[in-house]
Amino acid sequence: MACQTIRSAARLRPSVLGKIIPDSLTSSRISSSRFVRKELFPSSFYSQVRMTSSSSSDIQNKFALDNKYQGLENNVWVEFIDLNAKLQPLNLGQGFPDFMPAESVVRELAKTCDIEANPLLHQYTRGYGHPRLVKALANLYGNLINRGINPMTEVLVTGGAYGSLFCAIMSNVGPGDEVIIIEPYFDCYEPLVRLAGGTPRFISLKPENPTDASSASWALNMEELRSLFNVKTKAIIVNTPNNPLGKVFTRQELTDIGDLCKEFNVIVISDEVYEWLVYEDNVHTRIASLDGMWDRTITIGSAGKTFSLTGWKLGWSYGPAHLMRNLHIAHQNCVYACPTPLQEALGAQLEKEIKRLNTPDSFFYKMVTDLKERRDLMVRSVRDSGMIPVVPEGGYFMMVNWKPLENKADLSEETDAQADYRFVKWFAKTHKLLGIPPSAFYSNDHKHLAEDYLRLCFYKKTETLQKADEILKHLKNS
Ligand SMILES: Cc1ncc(COP(=O)(O)O)c(C=O)c1O
């Protein structure tokens, strides 16, 4: 009898009202669960079924968030995307343009959906990356760092750069390992290292001259950096150009970091998603191209940042086969493969870009020329408002010191621990302009270093930037 009850219970499923209805009776013909309960089974049947079912508190207790995710519940993007939806302010928070990406890449995607196109473009492709795309990536980066790259063993295509960060960290870091993270840092580095069981060790870039308005003056203290390296150090994560600061690490800085890695046998996870966005005479140096660094560097890129299509959520990593094998294994045990049509379109677009690299027709050239104008527009607006910009050498974010306008803000209603969170929320609510609080890009002990700033994204339509200018003027005159 007990067995029969369990078997019967297995065929039952809860209704939306929390009552039990047999599968066969959930058609529109019988829509009332009260009817089902009363007419079809004696009440003793239901009490037996209840005894074999877990209560909702049992379920909640057993399936509480697993320990490995405890402490990682809060996420700046979740919070601020929500705030944006609620307040509908001018959104200079997230890093993407509010206009159409380049026509040519969008058309490449449309081609994959042509009814005459290869039907297999709608099916799974090779797990480590669609052949057309990995070949294009190997070709592109092989030329840029002046070495042959094997598309099959030395490249991986992932769900955004995020996916590559996940695979690089999960497959190379474990309990007992330390990973050095340079602040400010893209916020996911820290939780990923902790999820992998590793311990993050933080070092902050600091402005050598606080009144200097360029990201170039934010530097690492190399003695302090050296003091973080030890036998447990497995990796250092470098992000150049840096988000949120816009700092472009110099060749010398990267060489110094590389030398420490060689001395202590450490790998570099080099997040270069803004590699094409470098202004004026600054040069993006790929750390993998430095003497002796290929063997110990995993370099990460993003289609979202490369072609301004963050919604495609495609990224990649490349590096020596002995390191990429680790990432391949993490990837095959996670999402296994990325969407085929997107990879096909991206591969086709990259083939075109490779041919026009370093010419004025190159998309990368056009993008950086266009963005420099938007950056300069925002620098002027920020300076006119009385706030102080940290003029970025790269990327499309700007750190802005809001302290000079502190007396215009009434933060008394805001409850966040960090002043930048309080200011950003107050600003979004009262002046309808949303930025991101950059203390989100610092470890707990160092968040105070960012409290005087907010991060603004200037990859927006000219009208959007003009509206931002008006809002900033209004704040100044309030
Ligand atoms: C420095 C940095 N790395 C990685 C990413 C993630 O890129 P993707 O959207 O391709 O996952 C971002 C996104 O903003 C970023 O700024």
UniProtKB/TrEMBL annotation:
One Gene Ontology term from the biological process aspect of the record: kynurenine metabolic process
GO cellular component: mitochondrion
Entries under InterPro entries matching the protein: Aminotransferase_I/II_large (IPR004839), Kynurenine-oxoglutarate_AT (IPR051326)
Pathway(s) it belongs to: Amino-acid degradation; L-kynurenine degradation; kynurenate from L-kynurenine: step 1/2
Alphabetized CDD domains for the sequence: AAT_like
GO MF, any single term: cysteine-S-conjugate beta-lyase activity
Protein name according to UniProt: Aminotransferase class I/classII large domain-containing protein
Organism: Allacma fusca
